[in-house]
Amino acid sequence: MEFRTLLLLTLLGLSLVEQGFGQRGDVDVREWLSAKEELIKKLEDKLKDVERWRSEVKALEVRLNETVDELTRQKSEVERLNKENEGLETRLNATEKEVDELKQNSGKAPQIAFSASLANFGEIYKGPCTDKTLIFKRIFSNTGNGYDNNTGVFTAPVNGLYYFSFSTYGYNTHVMGAILVKNGIRQVSTYDHPSDDGSDSSSNSVVLRLAAGDKVHMELWDKGRVFDNLNGHTTFSGFLIFPV
């Protein structure tokens, strides 16, 4: 508005000092004033346009600042996502490396497994006896040669987690069952006391962590007895799950 007022005052001053102003007739003065009023009106319209344009420029400036702020925010978000992506790529590469190592190790892992039953011919009653170690003579498999069918002892070839399972069968005249022993220490067992029923069977299993050279075998309970024939009622099996 200050600019508008200044412009109008300037035009009014020019109108007062224009040559011949006091010498013109009334008609000329009215025409001249009318022309000046029209000019002033046009200038006022121009001023309105300028003010409108100034308002639009300010609005554009506000939107531009908002756009800049949004771009800055998006840039920060992109940078954050890039950092997260780098972290994910690092973890993915580490996981792929672990998988490759596991594949390589699995290919190199020793193959160790055995399975045997007590009787390799006819029928056998084992126990009661002083030497309670059960020697499983009938070999179904012995990959890695960890099991010795002369002693009944499995010796771990490598450090690792091993799975063992066993089954026992017997009659009601004696205690029936057996104990899995690791390095002379009892681990798990099967058991059934003398009863009125004719026969009993049971089974058990366990996962053991063994060091290379550790020994595992089966032995009878005191005053215990088990039975086996070629049907394989009393068995002992084990295998390496994975090295550690």
From TrEMBL:
Coiled coil region boundaries: 33-105
Domain C1q: from-to ranges: 107-244
UniProt superkingdom: Eukaryota
The entry's keywords: Coiled coil, Secreted, Signal
Entry's Gene Ontology cellular component terms: extracellular region
Localization of this protein: Secreted
InterPro entries, per the entry: C1q_dom, Cerebellin_Synaptic_Org, Tumour_necrosis_fac-like_dom
Keyword field contains RNA-binding: no
Segment forming the signal sequence: 1-22
Record flagged with keyword Isomerase: no
Name of the protein this chain belongs to: Cerebellin 11
Lineage of origin: Eukaryota, Metazoa, Chordata, Craniata, Vertebrata
